[in-house]
């Protein structure tokens, strides 16, 4: 079997628990890790050593040293919450660095409003950083491991259109421990809902409960300043403005990395998961089905990176964060208050944040 040509060198920012996932991604994408580090104190050596890469203790410094190549941020920590973070990303992007992440960046509606969508230009100690350049940076970054970008979902879209408007849905987006964050699964789940129930600026309300990893009973969550440092399971009921509804189960502590969707409509039942889709008519007969053995999540992410680096096939652009980030933090707000919450509340809170 002919081996793939090697892609540009990659720098990695990850947690030690993600090393196996990063290796799988790098092998599938034919990437060579040259530098690696971790936001957690004392963990850089473990990550760099396991990847046979040079240790890096500061992500901004690592970005400043890059001339082309690619950056994979597997675990962001609090990166993306400071002006100097944005400056480092913009300058690296302008030098030709390709930017990939498994965590959403930014991870907060407040950071999005304060830094990424400011009303005025920001002076970042190196000249003004205009909204146009920020928008360019958002288009340049690629959030990976999203269910809507999997081959199974993409190949089901045409059949989904024939299935028509769903009246309700059950959505599950899971990751196994230490690989993909709950922040990633939350954004992935709500991005999935945006595709399944299009046409709304935001959902009407979300009623959610989060059970932290290691606890068998739900406890009041901290106020949702950010998606950072959250873990465990989140269960939610989502109501749309026209009265339709969805239930969601999101976790970073499941046995497998997987997603699944079940939709009900007057046309029957439509199922989608990592292996394909199936459409059952109201009488139970199969109208459409397509199944294939899915690759592991690491291989799938690696192939997505390879396709983007080689410009092989159409680029569908970045995953938009606006609605999914607002919805994810609204779910965390509901888990904190114990009551259904509306995205409008989170949006109003973000408007009050000082730049």
Distance between the termini: 55 Å
How is the CATH topology of the largest domain named? Dihydrodipicolinate Reductase, domain 2
Q: Give the number of helices.
A: 11
CATH class category name of the largest domain: Alpha Beta
Number of domains: 2
CATH homologous superfamily grouping of the largest domain: Dihydrodipicolinate Reductase, domain 2
CATH architecture level-2 label of the largest domain: 2-Layer Sandwich
Order of helices and strands: EHEHEHEHEHEEHEHEHEEEEEEEHHH
Radius of gyration: 20 Å
Low-confidence stretches: 1-5
What would you call the structural class?
Answer: alpha/beta
* Quantity of strands, as a count: 16
Percent helix: 25-40%
Strand order of the largest sheet: 10-11-12-9-13-14-15-16
Global outline: globular
Strand proportion, as a percent range, falls in 15-25%
The major β-sheet equals:
8 strands, mixed
Query: Please, what is the average pLDDT?
Result: 90
Structure, described:
The chain has 355 residues and is of the alpha/beta class. The chain has two domains: 134 residues, 3-Layer(aba) Sandwich (Rossmann fold), CATH 3.40.50; 183 residues, Dihydrodipicolinate Reductase, domain 2 (2-Layer Sandwich), CATH 3.30.360. The strands form three sheets. An eight-stranded mixed sheet has the order 10-11-12-9-13-14-15-16. The longest helix is centred in the last third of the chain and has 16 residues. It starts with 9 loop residues before the first strand and ends with a helix. The N terminus is likely disordered.
Brief overview, please?
This protein has 355 residues and is of the alpha/beta class.
